[in-house]
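User: I'll paste a sequence; please echo it back and then give the predicted structure.

Assistant: Echoing your sequence first, then the prediction.
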Amino acid sequence: MKLSIIIPVFNEEAVIETTHKRITSLTGEMIQKKVIDDYEIIYIDDGSGDDSLNILKGFSAKSPKAKVLSFSRNFGHQPALAAGILHTSGDVVVSLDADLQDPPELIGEMIKEYKSGHDIVYAVRRERNADSFFKRWTARLFYKVMQSMGVDIIYDHADYRMISRKVVEEFRKMKEFNLFLRGIFPFMGFNHAIVQYERQKRAAGETKYPLKKMVTFAWQGITSFSSVPLRIASVAGLVIFFGSLGLIAWALYTKIHGEAIPGWTSIVIPMFFIGGLNILFLGLIGEYIGKIYLEVKKRPLFIIKERYNLND
């Protein structure tokens, strides 16, 4: 059995050498114990501005098992993962971040689940005690909102997973530009298992997912996999419509009975409220139209500038 490990890299010069040593040591042990027969490590340099690419080139020069894809610019974490998956040749494929917060040693347990008949194995955090209150609260909110929107998502699972060759071949058929892998793989519906682990502190460097990126990522997931926000807009429009009918009935009633209709307050407040709501939902609809626009243009998900130890 051949194992493929894909690792997106973006400005990780402080940690990537430690990551490579730890993974090559692990795969060497797995070969000795005959857990696997062969392996490859595919690094995807996502337009790094530091010395990450040069370090990766050094890995590929020393061993043909270390393979590198270099993007022409920064395309993002999800396209980098997709590029790695599409270029693998292994029987099982593991996606792993470079920061070592997700322990590579869990791969052995994932392989056991794969051999027991599971095509997808999700690594799930056992707890979030090490996170700050704010991060823990926002993470829980993210998963609850996603599930409430009808998105099939694994709670507390990021992008540390193992997939079989069968899943890889089905993934090749996905032609989406707006990728949200945490929703795509559960959507595919293969037999899956969950393994739990304790997330470690980042070995070195800085996080690549500050609050702004996390919010953008969450919105990307919702609008890529759920039409519930559009339904909310429809329901809100219906409620406002009936509310407006009630306001009209009240105005007619006061007019018929000769009572003075309140002045500008009763006019301005509904105008501002309904106008603001219209702008909000027009923006929401525009978000979906923008996604359709990007999909129909059929632009590439990523552009590869250089390859090392990889054929076309």
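The first strand starts at residue 2 and ends at 9. Residues 264-297 form the longest helix (34 residues).
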